[in-house]
């Protein structure tokens, strides 16, 4: 694979010097099977009346398909609509300029569409996708082939389109999106991501009231009227009626507060509230228990597989837990043509996160990569993608793209043990009974610019300051200087023997890089709620790397106070090069107050055992060099 040491593609990047903003556009309502009207915008190349039949990209969004500028700004707009996420607008222009039709949709209960929202990616919303595809393939400009893409929620909508098994849908690209909604976003490690659900819920509520200024700033009031109405809605009365219907939408944070384990049922859940419910789900779910499973993509992977469509799993190392989500999706949905890419990116891929020097604007040409993928699957073009290995990943610090046929690439276990005097050592302890007492700092956290914030602050970079001061508040163990470079690529696994004075608690493990000047760089992390310490004896519901647990209430086990328990869990995947002379650090915490629920009845202290019978350790996947 070619490598130039920068965040560039492994193929020749050809950026168009100037993209024409001219395109044919119309917007209207499509009426669904139950009478609900869905707002749709269609973009075609300016010369689309030439009789050529084109492939279509379907982009379904919960965040407005476009916004309406106030006059006189609306009169000078160079494009027919204004998109508040510039990267989405650029992607659309690239595809339309490349000869595609592009269809934007406000999903049911959002934007200018009618209907309500009872959960994310509801069965009715998924069925709407199939009806929209039916409409697309009937159009004179359609070649009968449809692809779908999107970032975050919109990526989930692209993936859920496959649950319909529609024969026209040949390829999808769920980008920076969850696969298991419980572990990937709402409850990583079984711990409620309170900052996310609260912030995302507030953002959605503002959109549902057509008040985007509440989340983007009051300046928006001066330039925007809110969501774009369809063209026939001259007096905005239809838009206003649709917005009125959204006031009964459910609140994701309130629902999350009523859940602890995967199979818990929220009081507001319309699908489980009535034991005799006749609500028909789309497809065949793997597990019908729990409110979150109803709208979790992983629960329908068999339908995705049966669709036969290619799936491009696409994420970044610093995108919450979504890199692991992309890996699980890739390993589980193994349709021909499916691919995996993992870059040094934040949510959305706009920033290249460099732990050694901070974030840089990403120079990776995401749109060209997506065009190559869809050109191959929707146009049968030989774009070079068909001859490449299926996995591409970026090794940080080395600053190099690499490829493999599967994930993870071959690696050897490199084990470091927690030792005396806060040492991280390659030799197993030989002492009889050694412990470290940690007084949990309930204000400790990972800051305002972390991997867990980027999923809402999509345009903002991820940056971790020097963690030396933060580590002074944690239980940190540091290795001697490395005598050679060490590449860690894959899923590190923490195995900690811990005791708590209460029956519950949380443990966070941070993997860090200490340079010659004692600057501490964040590499990755993992976390677990201690009542989930037991590993599962049942088969995983999807393919994954590392220890598996169901996170179900029946498999939970409260701790016996002050009794040591072995806790094994994986850290978020990464590909990182520790340089010779640097030191590896493992830091343990009892909470991350910046992002996760701090248990009110959680322990004030944690006891970590590190002796011959209870050797606390971390296993790093070391790639031979």
TrEMBL record:
Record SMART domains: PepX_C (SM00939)
Superkingdom: Bacteria
Pfam families linked: Peptidase_S15 (PF02129), PepX_C (PF08530)
Membrane-spanning residues: none
Residues of the Xaa-Pro dipeptidyl-peptidase C-terminal domain: 371-619
MF annotations from Gene Ontology: dipeptidyl-peptidase activity
Alphabetically ordered keywords of this record: Hydrolase
Protein name listed in UniProt: Putative serine esterase
Lineage: Bacteria, Bacillati, Actinomycetota, Actinomycetes, Mycobacteriales
């Amino acid at each position: 694979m070619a490598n130039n040491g920068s965040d560039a593609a492994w193929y020749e990047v050809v950026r168009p010097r100037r993209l024409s903003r001219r395109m044919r556009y119309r917007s209207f309502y499509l009426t669904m099977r139950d009478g609900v009207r869905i707002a749709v915008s269609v973009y075609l190349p300016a010369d689309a009346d030439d009789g050529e039949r084109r492939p279509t990209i379907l982009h379904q969004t919960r965040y407005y398909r476009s916004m309406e500028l106030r006059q006189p700004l609306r009169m000078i707009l160079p494009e027919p609509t204004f998109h508040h996420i510039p990267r989405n607008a650029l992607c659309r222009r690239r595809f339309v300029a490349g000869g595609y039709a592009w269809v934007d949709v406000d999903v049911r209960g959002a934007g200018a569409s009618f209907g309500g929202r009872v959960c994310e990616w509801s069965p009715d919303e998924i069925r709407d996708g199939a009806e929209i595809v039916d409409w697309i393939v009937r159009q004179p400009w359609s070649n009968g082939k449809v692809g779908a893409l999107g970032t975050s929620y919109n990526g989930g909508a692209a993936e859920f389109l496959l649950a319909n098994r529609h024969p026209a849908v040949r390829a999808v690209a769920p980008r920076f999106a969850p696969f298991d909604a419980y572990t990937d976003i709402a409850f990583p490690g079984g711990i409620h991501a309170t900052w996310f659900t609260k912030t995302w819920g507030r953002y959605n509520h503002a959109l549902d009231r057509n008040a985007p200024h509440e989340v983007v700033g009051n300046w928006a009031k001066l330039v925007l009227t809110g969501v774009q109405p369809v063209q026939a809605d001259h007096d905005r009365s239809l838009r206003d009626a649709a917005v009125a219907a959204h006031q009964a939408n459910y609140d994701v944070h309130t629902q999350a507060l009523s859940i602890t384990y995967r199979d818990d049922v929220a009081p507001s859940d319309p699908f489980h509230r009535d034991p005799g419910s006749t609500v028909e789900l789309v497809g065949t779910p793997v597990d019908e228990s729990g409110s979150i499973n109803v709208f979790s993509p992983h629960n329908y992977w068999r339908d995705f597989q049966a669709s036969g469509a290619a799936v491009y799993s696409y994420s970044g190392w610093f995108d919450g837990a979504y890199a692991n989500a992309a890996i699980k999706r890739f390993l589980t949905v193994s349709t021909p043509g499916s691919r995996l890419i993992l870059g040094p990116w934040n949510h959305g891929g706009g920033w290249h996160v460099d732990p050694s020097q901070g974030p840089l604007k990403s120079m990776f040409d995401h749109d060209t990569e997506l065009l190559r993928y869809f050109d191959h699957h929707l146009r049968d073009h030989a774009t070079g993608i068909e001859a490449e290995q299926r996995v591409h990943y970026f090794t940080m610090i080395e600053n190099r793209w690499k490829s493999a046929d599967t994930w993870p690439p071959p690696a050897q276990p490199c084990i470091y043990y927690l030792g005396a005097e806060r040492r991280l050592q390659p030799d197993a302890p030989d002492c009889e009974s050694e412990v470290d007492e940690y007084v949990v700092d309930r204000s400790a956290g990972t800051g305002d610019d972390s991997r867990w914030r980027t999923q809402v602050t999509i345009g903002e970079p991820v940056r971790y300051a020097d963690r030396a001061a933060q580590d002074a508040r944690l239980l940190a163990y540091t290795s001697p200087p490395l005598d050679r470079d060490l590449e860690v690529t894959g899923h590190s696994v923490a195995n900690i023997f811990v005791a708590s004075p209460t029956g519950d608690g949380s443990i966070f493990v941070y993997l860090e890089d200490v340079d010659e000047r004692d600057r501490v760089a964040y590499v990755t992390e993992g976390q677990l709620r201690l009542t989930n310490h037991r590993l599962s004896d049942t088969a995983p519901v999807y393919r994954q790397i590392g220890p598996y647990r169901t996170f179900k209430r029946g498999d939970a086990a409260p701790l016996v106070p002050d009794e040591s328990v072995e806790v094994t869990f994986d850290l978020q995947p990464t590909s990182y090069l520790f340089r010779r002379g640097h030191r590896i650090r493992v830091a343990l915490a009892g909470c991350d107050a910046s992002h996760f629920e701090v248990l009110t009845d959680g322990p004030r202290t944690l006891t970590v055992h590190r002796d011959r019978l209870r050797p606390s350790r971390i296993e790093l996947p070391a790639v031979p060099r």
